[in-house]
Design brief:
The protein is mainly alpha-helical. It has one domain. Helices cover 37% and strands 8% of the residues. The protein contains 3 helices and 2 strands; from the N terminus they run αββαα. Strands 1-2 form a two-stranded antiparallel ribbon. The longest helix has 19 residues.
Amino acid sequence: MKKKRSPKHLAFIRGLPCAMCNRPPPNHAHHSLAHKPGMSMKAADCETIPLCMLCHESLHNPRVNGPFKGWSGEKRGSWERAKVDLYNIDTGAFF
């Protein structure tokens, strides 16, 4: 099954403050690792959250200095799921 892509939605997400540290835009549109369907597969564009460069790198590698340093995979996954749900509610719908 092909995941839905939306450049418009990604542009919207990139224009939001960082979901972790509230840095102003532009930010990265992080595709949730907690929502990806399998190995080497990217989550749908509606399953994204805005993250600044530092927070994005820290989320992918929690051993580097950053806000996610020391977080377990389970804790990062729970945080991502909650944020994706929040941004889907805030935006009203996927573009």
